[in-house]
Amino acid sequence: MILDIIFFVLIIAMAALGFIFGFFKSLISFLGWTISLLISYLLAKAIANAFLSIGTAQWLVGDGSIFDMVYGIIPEGLKKISLDAIRQAVESGADLNGIKESIRAQSEGLLFFLTPLIQEAVCKEMYLGSALSNVGQVLALELTYQLFVIMVGVILFIVLRVIVMGLSLIFKFKLKDRSLKMWERLAGIGLGVVRGFAYACILLMVVSYIAGMSQPVKDQLDASAVGKPVTAWVSESTGKMLSGDLESNDSYKLMITALGERVQKEKTE
User: pTM for this structure?
Assistant: First the structure.
């Protein structure tokens, strides 16, 4: 209920700002954010892969690394699920759905949207053929890679925002002395509603991820009529979105190799 109120308040606030600033100023602002977000989203993974060398892979999964930080928050139950046992089960022709259900049972307390990611990834040949020893390492490795992509995306977004803000200031300066007509204000309201809806959906997506760490937040999502479809979409698409193309990603395989070497080294010490 609270999230529904916030959702509609945000839309109303953006509609009011659209009326105050008019259609053209609102459009410039909205396009600035939208273009920056879209370009960052589309290019972040490609740029991250371009910079993912052997040295970068070692930095990501080396001692005291980002991987260690991520691995530290993985539930102990997942760390106890041996990849050797899964390898043997796969070789013996065991039902993969049974393996995935056992993983779901051990995912209690985990961010609920990550369960599809683990189930999607754990039986992939690239992990079964690696030196990794448990399901927790698989999940932590994928999340470390995604965190690296997000870091690249954030840096790219900041650079684009600086560029777009500079350009938008020029256009806003030209529009500064124009008197707004009523049709511009009304069109601004319409654009404000679209803008508010987009921002509200992004907010609900963020809340959906936080919900896995906070039961009160999850309770609010369950009670939200607007939040339910967004939450369902986030949960269903996260696994496919995060790990869908990693099997053909040569840059990501460098991370698997680097972590495998580390695991082997730790076993011999």
Answer: 0.72
